[in-house]
Amino acid sequence: MKGGKGMITRRRFNMGLAGALLVGGLGIPKGFANEKSEWDTLPTPPLLENESNEKGYVKYTLNVQQGMYEYFTGVKVPSLGYNGNILGPTLKAKKGDIVEIKVKNFLKEETTVHWHGMVVPGEMDGGPHQVVSPNGSEWTARFKVEQQAATLWYHPHGIGTTASQVYGGLGGLFIVEDENRLNLPNEYGVDDIPLVIQDKRFSQKGDLLYLTNMNDIMYGMLGNKVLVNGVIEPKKTIPRGKVRFRILNASNARSYNLKFNNKLPFVIIASDGGLLEKPIKVNDVLLSPGERVEIVADFSEFDEGSEILFGDRGYNFLTLKVGKKGKRYEIPTRLIDIDKISEKDVVRVREFVLSGLGHMVTINGKQFQMNRIDENTKIGTTEIWRVSVRMGMHGMMGGGRNSIIHNFHAHGVLFQVLKRNGRKPTGHEQGWKDTIALRNGDTVDLIMNFRKKGVFMYHCHILEHEDNGMMGQFLVS
Ligand SMILES: [Cu+2]
Question: Molecular function terms in GO for this entry (predicted)?
Answer without folding.
Answer: copper ion binding; oxidoreductase activity
